Each structure stands twice: as C-alpha cells, then as structure tokens.
C-alpha cells in the first residue's frame, strides 16, 4: 500500500472564489504546493486514480468547488483518509454522505473540519439547526477577542428605496417584442422540432418581457437586438461546419429572419422608455457618485446584468460617469452561442474583478455569483435592485460593502417590502444571539423513516466508490449523455410517476433504446412520500443494473475504452519489435549438427539459350517447387526453378570448394580460401568424383590467346575475361565472329578477337522489373549497360580468361537474388508451421502469397501486397465486429464501435502483433545485391547474442497483419483467414460463433416482442423467413422508440451489418476474374457500401404487392377491385419521432424524380453519381436500416454468409458491382482524381510470373 501525502482541501462555492484563494495562498507558499481543481481544468474527464495521483503529487493545499471533491470521493479517486483538513463555507452534502455516515473508529484517520462563513444558514434562520445536525456540531461565534474584531468591521448604512408616488406608470412595450409575439401566434407547426423552436423563442420573449418590466422597453429592445444578432452570426459562421441537421435552430432562424432589419427598431434612451424603478436606480447612482466610488449592483437574472449595463452606458446622464463591468459566475452550463439570450462572455470576468480592485472600473453589475466569499475590499456601495432577499442573501450582500461610511441600498416595490427588511434585521439579531450562546447543543436528528431509508439505500464497488440516491440522477444523466448522439433522438432518461390513493409515489425511468431491453425500464424499489425521492430511487436502481451489466466501471463512471483494452494502448507512430528473423541462422545450426542433407535442382531457364542446371544442397528441405523470376533488363527475363527436396549423401568438403569456385568468380574478396563453410551450397553435380573433376578442370585462369587456340570457340565454354594490368570490370563474350593473328611468325602475339563482347553488368539485384518498378537513373544505366558499352574487337594478349565457364559465373551473378528469395521462403515456412500447425487448419499451399505478405517494402509485389491487405482489412474488421456483437450482448453500439475501432486501428493491430510474438517475421530490410555477402556457418552462428530491436511504423506492421489474413483467405477461404488472424491478434477467439449454436445468444434475446405478426410483408420483401421474429422487429426499430416493442433499437444490428456488407462485397470482388489494383478495389467497395448509396437502396428497394379494395359504383353496388401497391423497405421503420416522419415523407415526395435520375446514372450513363447521392448525407437512418437487416439475417441464419450474399444480390448490390466492373464505370470520389494510364500501368500490371501457383 502506497502512503500518499496528506492534503488540506479548501472548498469554495464558485470557481471565481477558487481562483481568488489560489492567488492569495500562492503569494505566501511555493506555487507548486497549491492549485485549483475546477471545470477550467476539465476534471470531469479525469477518469482514473493514476491521473488524480499525478495531479496531486506535489500539492499540499487543494482548492476546488464542492462538486469536484464530492465526485472524486464518490468515484474513489481520492479517499477521505488522505485529507487532513477540510475547509469549507457551508455544510454541504459532501459531509453528510461521506464523513458522518461512516462509523468512526480510533484506528481510522478522519480529517479535521474548519468552517468559514458569515452566515451559517442555507436561506433563513430555521436552517441553522439542519446545518448543525449535518456537522454534528453547534455553530458558534468566537468570543475571544470579539471586541477587538468589532473594531475592524464596518456595518454599512441600510437605505431602503421605494419608487416615488406618481412614477409607477409603465412605459409603452417594446415594438420588437410585440412583433416576436405576433410571429409566435401566427406561425404554424411543422412537427416536434418546430414546437421545440417555438418554446425556445417563447422563453426568450418572456425573458425580454421581464427585462422590459424591470428596466423599460429600451433595455428589452437592446437585449433582443443583441441576442438575435449573435444567434444569426453564429448560425452563418457554422453553416458549413457540421453535417448534423438542427431543425429547431433552422426553424428559429427562419422565424427571426421575418423580423426584417432589427436596426429599424433602434431608439435613443429617454425617460419614456425606461421603467420608474430603473430611473430611481440611475438617480441614486448619480447622487452617490463621488471620488473613490465603487459599487456593486445585484440583480436577479443573468439577462438583466447586461441589459442594465447597456442602459447605464447609453443613458445621457450616466454614460460618461461610470465605467461598468459584469460578473455572472464562471459556470459554463448555460453558455451556448446557439441559445437565444445568452450573450455573456465569461472569459473576461476575472479581468473585471481585477479592474474593479485597481480602479479601472467603478461599477459591477452581478447576480448572486458575487454574493459570498469574494474579497472586494474597495467596494463602498451595494445596491440590491429588485431582488427578493432572504436572511442569508441580506447578510452576505450587505457584507460586500466593507469600507467606512458604506451604504447598502435596497430597492423595494412597495411599503410591504419595507416591513420585510425590518423583519430580516430582527432575524439577524436572533441569529447572532444563538451563535453567541455557548450553552447551546445540537438537537437530535429528527429524520423521518423515508429520510433515514433514503440515506441507507446505497451500494459500493470493489474500489470503495459509493453510489447513493442523492447522486444517482446526475450519474444516470451522465451515462446517457455519453451514448452516441443521433438526430431525432433524445438520449436523456425519461421519468414518469404513479401515485396511489395514499399519496405515495413510485417512479419509473426509461433509458434510451440503444441499450438492451433488460436495461431500459426500472422502477423505484418502493413508494415514497416525495416525488423527488422516488425519482432518485428509480435512478439508483437503473444505475445499479448498469453497473452489474458492466457498462459502469468500478469507479462508477461510464465504461471507458481503457477499462476494456488496457491503459497502455496509446497511439504510437512507431513500435519497437524484434529484429528481422535471419532464416540462415537455423540452417547454419543444422549444418553444425551434421544432420540429413537435401538436394534441390536449380534450373535457370534462359530464353533462346540453354538452361543453367545446378544443385542447391541444404540441411533443410524445401517442400514445394519454387519459381523465381529474374529480370536482366532490356526485356530479358530468366526463370529460376528450385525443385522440392530429395535426400542426398555427398562429400561436403568437395561441395564447399566447388561453391567457393563458382561464387568467387563474381563475388571476389567476399571470402577466403580458409573460410568455405558456406550456408548455401551450389554445385553442378551431386557426385563427389564428378565434382573433383570439375574443380580440377575449371580452377584458375589462363591466357585468352592460348585458350582460343586450344579450345573450340563456344562462348558459353569461355570464362570471364580479366585485363592483365588494368583494374576493370570482367568482360563476357556473347558471340565470337572470328579471330586472327596479325603476326603469324609469333605464337599468340597480336591475336585480335571480333564479336559481341560486353563488360559484366554492375547490377546485383535481379528481382525487380525496371518496366514496373521505378528505378534510379544509376540502376537504369546498369540494367542496359550490356548493350551500350559492348566491344567489337579486343587484343587477346591483354586478357586472362577464367577456366570456369561463363554460364556458372552468370549463375553466381544471379545467386544472391535466388538465395534472398529462398530465405524469404524459409521465413514464410517457419511462420506457416507456427500459425497453421493446429489440426483445425488446412494445409497452406500458396507459399508465394505468404512470402509477399511478409514483405510490405517489396516494390516488385507491391500491388499483390496491397490487394491482400485490402481483403485482410475487411476480414479482420468482420471477425472483430462479429465477436464483439456475440460476446457482449449488453454493450451498446457506441461502446462496440469504439472497441472495434481501437482493435483494428494501425495502433491496435501493431500492438497485437508485437504481443503475439510475430514481429520478427516482418521483412523490412530491402534486398541490396551490391552489399550481399555469402553466408558462412561459422560467422552466422557467431552473430547470435542479445536480441536486437528495430523501430517500425505502426502502419507497416498493421498492413502485414492484414496482408497475412488476406493471403490465408486466398489460400483456403475464410476459415483459414480466421485461424491466421486469431494467431496474430490474441483478442480474436476461435469459439466466437459457438454462442449461436449452444443457446447462449438466444438467452439474451427478448422472450416476447410486440408486432411480430406485422413482419410478413418484410419477409416477403427480403426473400427470407425469420426464425426469431424479434430480430426482424429490432432491425426496423428506430432509437426514438423506447419500451414499446420489447427489443433494442437497430443500432447493434447495424454495427454488425456494416461489417457483413463489406465482407460480402470484398468476397465478390475476389471472385472476379479480372485482376485490378487495390485502389480500384477500394473505390468499387466504397461505391456500394457508403451510407449515401445504402440510403438510396433503402428508398428504392421495394416490391409490388397485390391487394383488394372495395369500390361502389353509381348504382350503389360494391365490387372488389384488385390493385397493386408499392411496399418499400423504409415503410417498415418503427419510429416515435414526428420530426423524422415528417423528414422522411417530405424527402420521398421531393426526391421521386431524383431517384430515377440516380438509377439511370448508375445503370445507363456509366458514371457514379456522388454529387446526386449527397442529398442522403444527413439521413443515416436509411443506411442503418439496410445494415441492420444484414445483421439480423446473418444472426438468424446462424452466421450464414450465403444468406447475406443472397440479400446483397436481391438488393442489387452485387449486380451493380458486376455492372461497374464489366462496363469499367469510374467510381472514384471526385476528391480523388482517376489515375492516369501510366499510373494504372505501374499499379495494375503484375510481373509475368504472377500466374504461377507458387511464385515468390
């Protein structure tokens, strides 16, 4: 157990007071010892103990509002035993819930409490006893030094003001306000959104009316003009920034625009358009204004604050006298630029207080935000303007005037209010008397049964976090507020009440239908005397159920991503993984052990020339024939074929010498005569005797002239030519036209050779085709140097010739490329054994695909790699989506989506591969033939030591995971891909779909669901009959439906269906014979899976149903008429949102002709109508329906992809894909221009060898 340092926690009622105390305390202690914890620090997002411990690491004095510490204790981020002292102003619920409800014991440390307040009451004197009961201690005034304290206090003079007689006539109302009320009465409603907008406008006009009564029509007009101007400006500035429609704000905008130019309502301030009360206020300010004047004006409403400021700044008698500021508190709860009437800028308020202290401002207009706690010693005048006072506010506001000869003006409505002021003064004297009574004790707690039971209903978690009735409602709203927001849906919990004949109340709360049906409706545990308590009880029961459903974590916060997948999965651009696997280390180890050897025929096919036939001897068998294309430039391509293994017994020392002879013909100085333990043995024969003769015949060099005179002039039998004196590249004779001696009397002197003679190429990498892979100018020069630098004649006596024929030198030239590919094969073979060794896996045949999947940096096979990654991406997403859906039946769609996105992200896949131990198989080192060195057993084994690491980009690692899954799918279908993905991503489990067969998932389905008999037509439309009718109902249930059909909304099924549609499309694209680029595949997939296209399908997919109607002719005789009606998919949508219904109806009516145009574009015009489809961007509900139907059928058919493909065929998705492919329809989004022909050639053209089954 870590002993954390003790803290002093200072509790303040407002954020502004917190900031004031921080400044005061840090002036006397090191700043790091003291800090505030408020909404400005976003503490409501600090969801872990670790975060709080870091923030409190060096803090000795923490300052916050009550709610911050209360929440930290509730969620157990801070424990009570860590607090040594709590300083607070008022006895808050924090003490009731945590300090006194826990049993006190001598071995448990509890904090001391210091209360600082000028008024130990909540509102009136009767609440004093309630506070004392909460604190279990009487409130007393300190008697020691009391007389001295009084010498430093200044009681302001109380001045009650009543409007003068004859001045009570009200001015004429505001013209713009009358205009707004007229618009509200004459406008018609279009749906629920228009009703909501009218309610907002009505609240706004009511607030303006109050300002008009208190301050006069000028202030009301100014308030209305400023509010409307800000609202319009914000709407215009953000019109293009959001895709989410807001019908309420749009309707309000239309209404306000009907007012015309609001500046036409401007008028000057004069006595006829201000109220008598405000005139009396202005007169008082003018009368009291003098040098050193500092005043606070308290008003009742936030809106009145600014209106009064504008009045003072514009009135001709006050605009040059006063410098005004405003203060309405630091809370951001009510701040919204799209809310009419909220025009405050709270960011400048702390500057207001400092300017007031410095004398820059001499007047602050405020609400009760400055009523208590704020230190404003410069204030000498307080004016209470038209505010109802209780005992607490009377004491606190009067206390703001602390200078000598200060005054407290109280503006009253009539003489009756004057009596209330006298009564407040009397009650204050009673309060003082009680506080000075040292013999007074705390009365026993008089809580009734319901109150005691309310305190006892609570539950705790393993962390010690506690949930009570008092905080359940706020936490329930927070949970619902974090559910995914959707248009036309309110995520707030809905409370209703049932009252019995005795007046006892039971509450019912309904949660959003995004949740499982078992988590949608809850009742209070018992009936209560108060509606508030019943509501709290119902909220507590709901939150307890959510906690047991594991949608709430152990700190009683909504389940977060870090609670599920761990806190260490932070996004990284690069990962540290194991060093790339060296395939020759294991081979060297086998060489050192002297085990069985295997021979592999190595045949290098050369077009129009004889093949080069060799043998490669290794202690490890290659189980399949391997074909390796080799590109020599100028359109010349060789093919190296390495056969499968055959056991062999031979003399290894002779083989090593022959290998040394062949390799040293090209790779000189890369080995010594003493070091010949080659890992890769390449020999022309397997018989030791034949190899001995080969060594004897072909070792060393001889004079070219002597060689030509002794041997037939067959170019292939000649070795490489090397200049006697010059250091230059060896020469290779391709064709000999003839040779002659210029001096026949001297043997071999001046022998001239004519023919095609070329320097040996500088290229050492023959694995890429320069026509497909972009090469550097130097490489391009090397690839064609045989042609450009050819010689036609040379002097034979200037050259020596290798006895080794040049065909073996050519084999040595190509050997590094061949050996590299064999090494890649060995890595892939080792990976194959590790992943597909279990009995459930089928035999992996396509080793060429496995090799490509391991090499994301291989330029030659970049196209194949990206195509496999494209397929694997869809497979991995589908597997994770399906698993999350089946394993977590109580998770809502938002949680499922966030977890899925995290797992399948580049970061998630890279981390999974690192944890699963497959990182060493990733081939990131590009083959460099010029730096290639032969591998020796001794040197390879000596390199083994501590495992080295490398930095690899997360995207590269993730692409390898996807490509491997795609390779497994191409090899043997989805089951093979499942095994591969599960091996690399430990979070994927092989037993995912078992829950569909063993009854586990069926138990999570609702037992009964209303409306099951109404889906017959839906089944006919889809061409599928549901076994579980509730799935069909759920697939059509909009989130606005709460507690009606016994199912959840379609959001979970839509989550599953999106992954199914993508997989069905990718499988179909894979089955097409045409070979296309990954970019084209991605474009085709996006064209038929995007939400706009799916919404179009939802509106157009229908069937004609025949039905009978009754018609009565002119004679009154009824008859049966057969007719056909159109039944579309969207007709089955179940919704409780009038706004959505209106939107759908108007959209279908307006877009009937547009739908035909889009259909014609898709099938006839050869273009993909991205622009026309954009009209469906804001109606995701339609695409959700299509996706949810796929999810419902997949689950009901027990995970049958064949049924999903049949639905895609019926909807027209697959036929449209076939049309796009066969007619070469351009489906690229306009933001992504189509590639040029040259780019298509580079991207789409594979090497000639891609047709081979096992090409590497």
TrEMBL record:
It holds the Pfam family Dicer_dimer. CDD domains: RIBOc (cd00593), SF2_C_dicer (cd18802). Residues 472-566 form the Dicer dsRNA-binding fold domain. One of its GO terms (molecular function) is ATP binding. Residues 1228-1256 are annotated as: Disordered. Residues 1-18 form the signal peptide. One of its GO terms (biological process) is siRNA processing. Gene3D superfamilies: Dicer dimerisation domain (3.30.160.380), P-loop containing nucleotide triphosphate hydrolases (3.40.50.300), Ribonuclease III domain (1.10.1520.10). Residues 1-138 form the Helicase ATP-binding domain. This is DNA, SC011. It comes from Aspergillus oryzae (strain ATCC 42149 / RIB 40). The lineage of its organism: Eukaryota, Fungi, Dikarya, Ascomycota, Pezizomycotina.
